[in-house]
Amino acid sequence: MTELDAVKAALKTQAVETPSWAYGNSGTRFKVFAQQGVPRDPREKLADAAKVHEFTGAAPTVALHIPWDTVDDYAALAKYAEELGLGLGTINSNTFQDDAYKLGSVCHPDAAVRRKALDHLFACVDVMDATGSKDLKVWLADGTNYPGQDDIRERQDRLAEALSAVYDRLGDDQRLLLEYKLFEPAFYSTDVPDWGTAYAHCLKLGDKAQVVVDTGHHAPGTNIEFIVATLLREGKLGAFDFNSRFYADDDLMAGAADPFQLFRIMYEVVRGGGLTPDIAFMLDQCHNIEAKIPAIIRSVMNVQEATAKALLVDREALARAQRSGDVLDANAVLMDAYNTDVRPLLAEVREESGLDPDPMAAYRRSGWAERIVAERVGGEQAGWGA
Amino acid sequence: MTELDAVKAALKTQAVETPSWAYGNSGTRFKVFAQQGVPRDPREKLADAAKVHEFTGAAPTVALHIPWDTVDDYAALAKYAEELGLGLGTINSNTFQDDAYKLGSVCHPDAAVRRKALDHLFACVDVMDATGSKDLKVWLADGTNYPGQDDIRERQDRLAEALSAVYDRLGDDQRLLLEYKLFEPAFYSTDVPDWGTAYAHCLKLGDKAQVVVDTGHHAPGTNIEFIVATLLREGKLGAFDFNSRFYADDDLMAGAADPFQLFRIMYEVVRGGGLTPDIAFMLDQCHNIEAKIPAIIRSVMNVQEATAKALLVDREALARAQRSGDVLDANAVLMDAYNTDVRPLLAEVREESGLDPDPMAAYRRSGWAERIVAERVGGEQAGWGA
Amino acid sequence: MTELDAVKAALKTQAVETPSWAYGNSGTRFKVFAQQGVPRDPREKLADAAKVHEFTGAAPTVALHIPWDTVDDYAALAKYAEELGLGLGTINSNTFQDDAYKLGSVCHPDAAVRRKALDHLFACVDVMDATGSKDLKVWLADGTNYPGQDDIRERQDRLAEALSAVYDRLGDDQRLLLEYKLFEPAFYSTDVPDWGTAYAHCLKLGDKAQVVVDTGHHAPGTNIEFIVATLLREGKLGAFDFNSRFYADDDLMAGAADPFQLFRIMYEVVRGGGLTPDIAFMLDQCHNIEAKIPAIIRSVMNVQEATAKALLVDREALARAQRSGDVLDANAVLMDAYNTDVRPLLAEVREESGLDPDPMAAYRRSGWAERIVAERVGGEQAGWGA
Amino acid sequence: MTELDAVKAALKTQAVETPSWAYGNSGTRFKVFAQQGVPRDPREKLADAAKVHEFTGAAPTVALHIPWDTVDDYAALAKYAEELGLGLGTINSNTFQDDAYKLGSVCHPDAAVRRKALDHLFACVDVMDATGSKDLKVWLADGTNYPGQDDIRERQDRLAEALSAVYDRLGDDQRLLLEYKLFEPAFYSTDVPDWGTAYAHCLKLGDKAQVVVDTGHHAPGTNIEFIVATLLREGKLGAFDFNSRFYADDDLMAGAADPFQLFRIMYEVVRGGGLTPDIAFMLDQCHNIEAKIPAIIRSVMNVQEATAKALLVDREALARAQRSGDVLDANAVLMDAYNTDVRPLLAEVREESGLDPDPMAAYRRSGWAERIVAERVGGEQAGWGA
């Protein structure tokens, strides 16, 4: 196999998980602008996700969010997904939208609230059992808004206790993926604010606990690819939440704000042997003002382009330049790959996979956008509301 | 008059405007936690604001937000405020919650939307005419989320045109206060992102246009007191929106996150002759998890304490140390005031004004919190929703 | 002329000014790593700059820094530059390396120090008269490290007075370019910290005063292209200092840290009609660990590539998408240009201009690097030292 | 013992280590302003440190930096310190000022450089053996300036190898304290950029490896007290480097930029049982423009004031409010301690310890400042230079 063939082969098997909630409405604290044709239930979300996969060939699974995607029969939902050519992916818990969670969930000072949150996490594992999902992704909105509001350290004790209980509940093939976030919705302290905290907890939990890197959840100036490289080295990188940001957790389309950063991240993934099914590559974005399905298609394509560039890095030449201490040469090798226009290569990959070389154009021609606007009338549009 | 008497006199006349919307529910994009006893209409907001003024003696006016505070008869509302011992203050426009404003308001690419937004701003001036409010505060959520989404420069042209039209509509005693904000809800570009942009527009508009400094609307590391000093020097500081933040526009209680910063800001206000009725000292906060009325009382007290410390700075000693180039001495003079516990002084000021020395305790004893929970049953709680 | 021809024509005339000091040693506060072959006087710096221009065809002028480039006979230096195929560009003042400037220069509390700094600025204009340089670039390290250290507002008064005196000293064809910087070397307040401050001063000074945008001098999250667009709209953009940064004022090679940002900046330049000789496009970088001449060649090429992409934006299609409010389409038009590999186009442009298509390779083949190492033995290497 | 007595007792035994290099000259990359009377050798630094301890009673040990404090006879230096009433504290290594370290030290791509750096670290342990110092503090300037410059992950392997070798060299009572830093002097990647990285390495090394928190080494928005609480909970907090900053690693006097933050940090220290000799409380600051000895006295006092406030927090009342979920009450309990003017209490503590209640005034009266200016003439002033 030539090197280019190897690159193509890697691109052909790349899988990006799309989140069910990205197909629904979202917004800022100021306003949620509703869009026409938005899904009204989990099946309609899956139908939209199927279109993303149909045209990109790279989005075979869909992450669910409980309770936003609560259904009576998860096995039936998994079956429906299968009929659409999809699989159900990560189960995402929600311990932030119940009125009880005003001051936290598993870190709440009140044991009753902690118990309620824990029960929800257990229920999510039940959903996993029903859907066959292997990953439980836990993002906790827990934190405090004011100094003194609660005891930072005790909250860590409560956190450890809850995570341990959830971990014990996991089956042999299930994982707990712990996501960190610098701030928001908590504005003073967050209980899992950085990769160090997530890593420390996962380490104690065991091999089935791993860290989620959401690319929008860091302080300004954070070198995210360093974290990726470090977690891969430690065997503790479980998943990505891709999105992009200029300021805070802006949740823009992956690759839209800093395509060079996405490339650098994907380079560390490739270099660290992380381009495998063991790591879940997920989008987690909000399409507040742009059309949702094409925005997701664009995001998948952006991830593909960053990956293609990362795969094209001449690693031998790079290692040579690095070892020789030639700063400019080493940088040039990396930039040569980044500066390459990989769109023709990806078009080729798609054609070889029986896909239209231009997923966006194909989606537009498909009439799906018009069809959902026409058909999805009445009912309540899906959104972040519980 | 001794110096301490002068300090007391200044503190006795200090006025902090509270915003009607701070009495209603607010939250993050993830969840709005409803509180019991929250006002259901503008009159109930005023009733709550009257309590803040009753116990602090320092919150005599209330800012309105249109359309959240839309009423049929503004004159009647103003009359009601007067009966409560309050005045109506700044009128705040809202050009971000209508579906039309998805891509902006006065900067929108579509002239029809711009016209709609402009009409709203005119309507706000009508409200001012009816209430006797002298200030129109314009914060625009306008901006873009993606590079290329719209033409940054053309949006400035549209902005200038709209502001000019509003300016022309003002009466002789009315002002246009232009507020800037780094980001959110727009995540790539914001049309009035910094004081420089607001200043440049106000300069062209004329003397009745001035800049609003919202303490939470800056990039990390921004020296806000420098901006305050500069705008005062230019005669272009019109108003404050006080709140505090650790990360982004967190809208925590003023003085809660960085009390030293609030002191430094108030020092520049005092030093620049800004402690006058010409500058509107307003709170603009979200009490997402804490009780609203006491949080506002606390915020008013925090502003008072920062002001008291600023007034206590020995400016002659400071100037002497500054002129001599003694860095440590100059810093020590400032810190001496900051490190002073001014709570006894403020208790004295309150007692001399016939108030309880401890506004929080007095409010708690008043039974108002229990009363509104009992009485305000049914109806729809006020919030940010249009 | 076809559109591509127009793009090529623009690229052929593009001029990037290189700074004399980038050819000398620089470092961080921790260490300056000396390199072999570094120039020992202004003529050797010019000789190196001539090589950059020889191979890129795009670096025809060199900025001087006084006193680092002090010579007895500036006319002779200009003549020497001419012989090398170069022109002398901006004169950069230095009011931060004399012991007197510990607490500031033109903003210093002591009038004698202010006078000394002003005399230096006058002397720089004298140099301009001798060299024929038309631009005086003023970056002031003035500021304070501790709250209270000096009076923020009085410092503005002193600043205004000094700038006015310098402005009055300018000839008809000379400009004062005022540079702002968020922080460093001052850590609490900086006297010209942002574009708003620089703009406000320039506005009062008059038409010959304009603002310099150093791409590394902003707070995290600042949208620099917005500032560029705004200053162009106001007719107040005088020059750029290009470099790149991940954290603070890192002074890395232009385009190295965020090539997408450089593209967006150049797009606003092109769109705002700024790709003209009226705006000085300068590099201002530190090559602490990489070889200096090739680093500067790379930087010039990075600016060229960003410019080429900016010129390739299909502005009609973009305007159409923007006007229609199609967020994804508009973004896609911009990204299409960014994702284009413009290196072949630039190779063509170079060949059509009689240059080697690969400036880096040509420089390496030239033997210059080896020659200066061999020849420049003894003497004191140029650096930031006064 | 009453509670106040316990507070006083804690304050009387509090020890802040001062760094030898803070007595020497320092500056920014732009300029080092020399001061008169600055020490010229390690003994003179100790003499200055003795003055800080004489007047504060709280600075009994001095950290050394090798090679800046290299002497022929460390035992003699320790003896001299003892005569001055001081002890020698932490030994700080320097693997950044030799020309070999341009691309790193223990993470350098070249094994010979790594060996050289390792030998230096071993030599530092030798110094510890000679001085009786128990802590080796390792701050590595290692990192890269450009993407691709070196392999991020391999550098971690090299780092781990070196740390392990140093760890093995430690005696039973010696510790390796690993310091992290976000950026500078490396501008793209830093090999120990955050607490998570330092923690992960220390965890693998063993019990004698602990993390150093330098308060100026974090990204904007980082909640440092959370890190302190977490490391204490993990038993991995070894030491502090106190200083303060508005922007980056500004190295201003501790408590000067954000006294509230210093209080919150000290509160977590107190709450987490960290106010013990097991944790080294060190200053690490640069007095670029202010007089050095009084600046250090002021910093020690600032740490004392923050500690006093932290000790005054009514922890029972706080826990009660926290458990009840009363956000405002809990915050108020903390703020009550912060708003207290603890200067009278500290004056009392000093008097009870036989010290002058006002260390700054006492130092000024002592004539030491004048004496060192008069006596320390000729020779080379100490500074950061190798």
From TrEMBL, chains A, B, C, D:
EC number: 5.3.1.14
NCBIfam families assigned: RhaI_grampos (TIGR02635)
Domain Xylose isomerase-like TIM barrel, first and last residues per copy: 54-249
UniProt keywords, alphabetically: Isomerase, Manganese, Metal-binding
Domain of life (superkingdom): Bacteria
Protein name as annotated: L-rhamnose isomerase
Gene Ontology biological process: L-lyxose metabolic process; rhamnose catabolic process
GO MF term (any one): metal ion binding
